[in-house]
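for the record, two folds in this file. i put them one after another cuz i was lazy. first one right below, seq on top, structure tokens after. the second one comes after a little note so u can tell where it starts
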Amino acid sequence: MIDKIPTLPDPGDKIEEQQRAIGDAILRGNAKRKRIAKGIINYAGILVGVFIVFVVIVALTTKIRFAEKDEMGFSELGLNFFILLFASYSMYLANADSGQRAGYISDSYISEKAKFEELKKTIIDNKIQARLADFCHDFAIDELKMARSSVLANVGLKYERYEEEWMGEDETFIDDIENISKAQKKAIKEANRMKLIKLTPDMILRRGRGSTSRTLLGMSPEKKKSVKFSTRFLQLLATSLIMSMTIAEMVQEPTWRTFVSIAIRVFFVVLNGFFGYKFGYENIAVYTSSYMRDQSDLMHQFLQWNEQNPEILEEE
């Protein structure tokens, strides 16, 4: 009986196994580098903040002067002022960025984003996004009617009478009406001054809260961020100027007064970092989430409007 000849391992299988091992090692290395990079990014605000505090302490404890020293000390005053301004605003911006990243993983943002994406997908899958323009027009008209009705109801006037007798009339005509009160005339003028709100399909579908009842979505989070940063810069400009005026006098002697003076200014810089983080987080977790909530509400109303107002197809 002939013994069975043992089969030798295929060299190709061994090479393939080695290639898989190398590929797995590369993937693990890439994942590890991504985790390290993500960790650095997440804590970048803290690292920048620590460095800024260090720079501020060194700057305030060192006799730094310009080439020409003026008798009134304005050179030193100006230098301290710009050190505080730059450090405070840098701290604010660095930590605002960290706050935003924390906002993106907040429960409120994740929840509102999921609702928004689901409703948007429903609209696109049903291929009805082209009807959004008609919905926006009808919505704006209905909103204007409700806003005017609310103003008129406060003074005991019905919208139907307003629409029939006073809508679109000039203020001179309204003033000459004899059978209504001054408060009612004022309400009619206010109703006539109201205009259609601006609402477009792009405002609804672009993922992004409203500031007033008649602006619906209101200021976008991106614009709110720019306004907040600009406002904060002006606040720091004034505050840094006031605080730097005391440094020129107190840092001259290395005493406990000097230590307290520097500690107060370092606290001021760190506090701006806290405010920056707070705003960055709220810009995403609160403002952006609320903005998307309003957009989702409009998309939900659009879906209901689409069911109640079926599209009429033209006969060929």
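(here's the note) second protein begins now
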Amino acid sequence: MAATNKSPLLGLSVAWGYGFAVVLIVFILTMLMPDADGPSPWDPTAFRQGLIGMIANFRILDELADLSIVRVADVGEGLLNVDLEAIAVSNRAFGYAPFYIALLGAGLCLFARAVRLRMLARHAGISSEVPGQLSAFFYGRGLNLFFPFGPGELGAMRTLARNGADEGRATVAVFHNRVFEILAIVGFLLWGFVYLGWGGAVEAFVWTAILITGVVSLTRPLGRGGAADRAGFFGNTWSAFGGDTLKRATADLLRAPGFFVGVLVLSLVAFGLEVFAFWSIKQAFSSPMDDYIMMKDLAFVPFTIVVAVAGLARVIPYTFAGFGVVELVMVVMFWVFGEAFLGGTTVALLCALLLNGMTLALFLMALGLSRCPSILETWHDFFERSAARAA
């Protein structure tokens, strides 16, 4: 009988996570993106121009015309009418070399994080003979593609335990993996601010604080908002990231300084590969041969700051795969650095497709190569342990 009472709450939480992601994407596509080409986001002409511009940047107008989704210069059938100028944009030369580099970079960044989990598992006392340690990371990361609120860490822990690891030690290893992820992101973010200098970093820092605070405020339905009474939104942010626990975990890891530095370097390399993969996918959808570079005036350091801020937002997985939240953060941060919403939306969605697509491929590989727990059982177990159940 108790299980029957829990089921509607479980379904409602999943529906809310999906629904909120959709609302955020609709907000980007209707309220932000059309602003670059039209007088008002409510102007249907501006909306169509923005939407067609993004589709053209994705190089798929010809395919959509073949499917009768769009019509070219009033010829054929379709819901949207595109002109020959948009077709010319869509037919720009595609950069296959940077595209393959982006795929390689995305794969290597995820593999480096899986290796980091294996190193932390061994440091926590889990024998290296325990199989599935690399797959545990891919399984957990992939689980977050389908469910909101981030059950992936529990999934990674249960995969380690299913393959013979002590559950307590597996929990420590998985949490320390998150510690190093946050340290690497913050390291890149601080480096970017220092590089820009006081004059260049002030506005970016302010918007970073606003965006991260806004994302953190979404965690209150999960029961994490109580710390806001401690020191306003700073206390809420500290609590949402588990600041006290992160501090204790970092101090514990520093007892082995050589190991700490080695894993931190690996974490920095992993995040650097992610930034490079995102930069490469942006370049792939540019077209130097046609004298077009997407975000031509955006330097690599500001681009890194954008990815780092989005990475911090992704640490708090309010929606599935951070969908909507991460893209919104990226679009706004690109705008802070002077890029139009149309270009920012295109690049943000390209980055999401790249990383989530590679994550999905490695998740499916993990399911085939290792003893992974049931996806639905893991989600139910996560929900039973979650503060969302008491909301």
